[in-house]
User: Fold this.
Amino acid sequence: MDLEIINGFIDQVKNLKVLVVGETIIDEFVDVSYEGQSMKSICPVFKLEGGKVIQQGGAQAIANHLYDFVKSVDVITNTNNEIVKTRYIDISDKKKHVEINKFETEKFKEINVNTSEYDVVIVADFGHGFCDKLTITDGFHLMCQTNSNNFGFNRISKWKTSRKKSVCIDLREASLQINKKISAPRENDILEIFNYELNTDNLFVTTGRAGSTYTNGKAFTRQSSYKTEVLDTIGAGDTYFAFASLSAAIDFSDKLLVPSLAASLSTTWLCNEKSVTKQLLLNHASKYL
Assistant:
């Protein structure tokens, strides 16, 4: 039955024209090995091992996940590597030891976005300034991410004057939104978030290992996460957002199944080294549903 639902989703989105707007983030992964602690200062010492992987994250990664599912995907984004996140990864256990961020946000210019030619418009605001200079009509699907660089300053309510078709946030972003720490959200918590300066038709809240929730202010549903063999969770939220936007755009009957499944699939590889495709999604569904 679940495979039939997924195939139904694939059939309904295949003719959509999609626009993705937001910051593209360059993710660099540099291999290192731990050598010990400095004798003169309290800091770890690592040896560069020479391996380096460069990936496209952020808005471009969201677009990459959708190319195989819809008719067309256009992207409006920064193009000159103004945002780069370099992570130093231990070759022994693949754990991140240090992350260094580079932001050149003063290079962003004002952009007017014409959404009239698209069936679905997705705005991915990672809080680095690109989306602050957008002029865009109402009716888009929004993610407004909180991270270490913008904690508390990139709340989704900054978009409250724009009418959204859907909003996707995680638990930390939801807690910031209503000024109340939420650890295990109940239906009344999700409805409180929905009614607090969101101005949206649909709300998705991802809750990590606990899964995700959905409401349109009336109906409420919850989806458990799929117990996959997790390699890396970086980018899983972006994957979820990509497919949640499509689910909301077509008013799909089961709005949580495909986004949840796609997000769990994306945790089986390193960051954005692969993209979700129809065949990968169906193979994953056959294995875990």
Notes: The radius of gyration is 19 Å. The CA atoms of residues 134 and 226 lie 36 Å apart.
